[in-house]
Structure formats: structure tokens, C-alpha cells
Amino acid sequence: MHRTTPPRPVDITQEFPELLPLARTAIRLHPRPGEPVAGDSSVGGPLLWPRDEPWPTCPEHAGPWHLGFVPDEVRDSRRVLTAGWARAVGNRLILTPPEREVVDRVGHSGRRIPQNGPVPLLAVAQLYARDLPAAEGEGLWPGPQGADLLQVLWCPFEHGDDCIPQVRLVWRKAAEVGPALSTPPEPSVIEDESYLPGPCVLHPETVTEYPAPLELDEELAERVGTWEEPRDHLYHYALSVAPGWKIGGWGNWSFCDPWPMECPDCGGPVRPLLTIDSAEWDNEQSWRPVEDEAVCAAPGVVHPQPQEPTRITIGRGYTMQVYICERSFGHTPLQVMQ
Ligand SMILES: [Zn+2]
Ligand SMILES: [Zn+2]
Fold first, then answer.
1. 138 falls in which pLDDT band (50, 70, 90)?
2. Which ligand gives the minimal distance to the CA of 269?
3. If you measure from the C-alpha of residue 329 to the centroid of ligand 2, how many angstroms do you get, rounded to a whole number?
């Protein structure tokens, strides 16, 4: 099923023609729970990985144990909760004693779990160029020429000042993978259960974005601010930057001012590649695809909630933006939490 973002309530370029040259195309990925295979674009699905290529690891966490969660236990608990809510009467979840045990084993604060040696990275997402919106596919591919597959992995432990998982990007040509790895290694422990993506299939769709209010120049920001003041900050929430997982577009600066960003390796300019979001839309719902209205309107509780299909939470429900160097696809990506 496609996903369709409703038309924006106002054509903001009629009000502010100076925004026109600032328009950028973003690709909303619209992840939804499913059973992706290595040949599919996905979040939380298996990656198409050459059998003979070493699986990437993070060397920064010496064992012999870590406080955290076991990926398979998190998966079991999610499965039990999804099934439990599906048969719930009204808003009351009823679990059998064995099911309760599965959920309780995961708990809330984690426990000591053995993990020795470098931590295998977790597969987070992959995107085939062919799954980008058809008519514009070529122009929208964000990677190097000759590659047609973007793979995203991360270390499921907190890194850096923002305390977020550290991302690794891999660009490849799918046809050159050859015999594929069937069972990738997995960490025995992850720091937070919300760092384990649930398997989702993608429904890429293009939308047009304009800079977040904090990224407009001062004079224009002031005029936009005056315009949107009596309109419940319509520009900020409904007209500028789309929520949810996406490729490209603008950064969704919200709680801190934009700062000059540069490539960690060469100091060169960077551009937004991928946004990983805790939710696909917010309470304002302007960005909720029309195809998701019915499930949201249905009575009872759906688990996971329709707006949180990937189970990933960044910080307290924020976003993680991954920027890449404009000079080299091989340089370390820059990660920002917003
Ligand atoms: Zn790490
Ligand atoms: Zn660079």
C-alpha cells in the first residue's frame, strides 16, 4: 500500500515567494511493520551482505558484561504484547502467566548481560535505489554513482555528547554482493531496547520541505513568525520540515540553534542524508498519511502505536539526523540529535 501525505494546508510560497529557492525534496520512507527480506528496502530487516565480508563491529565497549537488554528477548516481548493487545477487550491488556514472564524478563532497566570483545553492529535500515519514487528515482539517489544500495548499521550503545547510537553507512552495488550472509552476527546485549528496530517495510514518497524557522535568515524568520503567530505556528509544524524517517530534505532544528556543521574528517560541508525519528507524525497530525487514518480511528489499542512503527526512540522522543560529507562518501557521517 502506498502512503500519501495530505496536501499542505497552505501554499507557503504564495505568502513568501522568497522561500521558493529554498525548497528541497525529501523522501519520507514511511516504515510500517512487515516481514522484509534482504532483497527489500527496510528498517530493521536483514541486510544484503556478502558472505565473505566481515560484519562491522564497535571496539569501544570492553566486556565482560554490560547493563542492557538481549535483542531476542526484546523481540519476544514485543511479539507477546502485539498479540496481547490484538485480543484485548477495550483498553485492558490480559496476558497469560507465561506471556507475562516473557515481558517481565525484559524489564525496564536492563540487567547485566555478558558481552566480550568488539560489539557487532545492529542492522538498522537499507534502501535500494530502485525503491525511490519512480519518475525521479535517478535524481533522488543520495549515494555515489555506481552504488544502488545504502545500508545503515549502528552500535547499540550510546556515543558522543548526544548519547546516541553510532551510525555506520555502507554504500554498495547490489549485483556485486554475490553469495549473501544468511545469519549476521548480533550483539548479545544492547544498551536500550529502543535501539532495536522492529522489522518494517518502506513506502517511499517525496514531499517538499522548507527550512525550519531557526534556519531562516533573521529578517525572513521574523516575518514568517508574525504570519504564523495567530495560526498556531503553522509554518513550523505543518509547512516546513516533515516528521518521520526520511532521506534528504532539511534538518528539523527545534530545541537548539543551528550551528555550522562540518565533516568530522575533512572539515568540508555536509548535507542531510537520513533522519531517524521516534515518531512518524505528532499530535498535530497534519503529516499523517491518509492511508493511516482508519487504523488510528479504530477503537482499542494498537501495539505498536501506528505512529511508532519502528520502535526506535531517540533521546526523549527526538530525532537523529545523519549528515554526510559533500566531498567524499567515505568520510565519517556527522550525527545530530534534535
Ligand atoms: Zn559502540
Ligand atoms: Zn569530508
1. low
2. 2
3. 8
Is it the case that residue 75 has pLDDT exceeding 90? yes
Query: Could you read off the pLDDT of 284-316 as tens digits, one per residue?
Result: 789 999 999 999 988 888 899 999 999 999 998
Residue type, 260: P
Q: Which pLDDT score, from 0 to 100, does residue 299 have? A: 84
- Ligand lying closest to the C-alpha of residue 60: 1
Q: How confident is the model at residue 254, as a pLDDT? A: 75
The answer to whether the beta carbons of residues 142 and 271 sit under 8 Å apart is no
Taking a C-beta distance cutoff of 8 angstroms, is the pair 321, 338 a contact? yes
Ligand nearest to the CA of 329: 2
CA of 143 to the centre of ligand 2 (A): 14
Q: How far is the CA of 232 from the centre of ligand 2 (A)?
A: 39
Nearest to 255 by CA among 213, 223, 222: 213
Closest ligand to C-alpha of residue 156 is: 1
The single-letter code of the amino acid at 192 is: D
Residues 6+ apart with CB under 8 A from 196: 44, 69, 71, 74, 75, 122, 156, 190, 311
Return all residues near 115 (Cβ < 8 A) that are at least 6 apart: 61, 63, 64, 65, 66, 187, 188, 189
d(CA 320, ligand 2 centre) in Å: 19
**108: how many CB neighbours lie within 10 A of its CB?**
7
Is residue 41 classed exposed, middle or buried when 0-12, 13-18 and 19+ CB atoms within 10 A define those classes?
A: buried
Cα(79) to ligand 2 centroid in Å equals 42
Expressed in angstroms and rounded, the spacing between residue 265 Cα and the centre of ligand 2 is 5
Mean pLDDT of 154-170: 95
Quickly state the pLDDT bin for 134 (edges 50, 70, 90).
low
Q: How far is the CA of 271 from the centre of ligand 1 (A)?
A: 24
CA 112 – CA 328 distance, rounded (Å): 40
Q: Are 123 and 170 in contact (CB under 8 A)?
A: no
